[in-house]
Every structure is written in structure tokens, then in C-alpha cells.
Amino acid sequence: MTFDALKINLGTLATITAGFPLRTAADALPAGDVSFVQMRDVADGASVDWAGVPRVALPGKRPVSWLGDGDILFAARGTNNYALALRNTPARAVCSPHFFVLKVSDKARIDPYFLAWQINQKPAQDYFRQSATGSHIPNIRRSVLEGLEVAVPSVSKQRMIADLWNAALEEKRQLNALLTNRQKQLDSVAAGILTGRMR
Fold it and tell me: Which domain holds residue 29?
């Protein structure tokens, strides 16, 4: 399968900002009505478990840029620099400063779900590994992210790829659920053997 595609730096396709700045741990914030996404709320780098995201009251009165569907979270710290395009986003949601937030400038030109897919592929991941700073915990600077070269095929081809990726992620979720259920069954069998209660 071949695609004709322009090559464009990511910084020209999306605005990139850091997540909501905090001087304290998110767990120390009082309860409120803002969903505060942290790295632990992302399942396998593929989706946000919104039901499990803590709801807090944000400190201070600084202007807030709320997250929305199609916004991309990029994990800038650590060795797993995944990108995730949001779905089913609550009306009032922000993320931790461990993420960069990418807001696509023109969704008629580039599909954010395709863009997230491309950031997760080997060429981009190799680029991040080569460009990371920090000896203890690797970190991707915003300028590095902005400089990532992105291929931009036609929107129809972008959406086809994004749909294939989403289908693959759903299949992976279903398979993981089956594996988890099977392991629970095996754990129950093992416990039954040890206690002599297995028939």
C-alpha cells in the first residue's frame, strides 16, 4: 500500500502547550468538578478511563484551556512517549504537566486520531529516543515535538488509517479482557487445589 503525502513539521499542524501547572500533587487538591487526567489514568497508552479520573478543584484563578475531543495528549516524560487523541471528554477537564496537549489547527486538513497514530509509530518513536534529554528520566522538549516531521496524506486516507488503528485497539482491549478473565479462572483453580476444595 502506497500513499502520496506531504511532509510537514508537527509545530505547523498543531499548537502545543504543557498541561495544567501544579505546585502540589494532584491527590492533594480538594474535590471539585474538574476531571484531572494523570498518566495513571491512561490505559495502555490507548484510552482514558474517565470514570476513574479524579475530580478536583483547581487552585488559583488562572485562565484554563479545557481539553476536548480530538485533543492529543503526549506523554513527554519517561521512555513511553505515547500520543492519545481524546474521546468522550467531559466538559471541564485538564491534564497534568507531564503531558503536552496538541490541538490540531485545521481538522479539515489533518485528522487528530491519524496524527496520534503516526506519533506512536516507529519513525517518530525513534526520533524521540534520539532527541530525549535527561540522564535519569528521559524528557521530550516542546521544540523537539514541534520539529517532528509528519506525513500528511489525503484526509480520506488519514481516516481510513485511524479507523483501522481504532479497530485494532478495540480488538486488543477485548483480548486483554479475555486474558484477564482466564487468569482469574486459573487463579481460582490453583487456590482450589491448594485448599482441597476443587472438585
Answer: 8-152
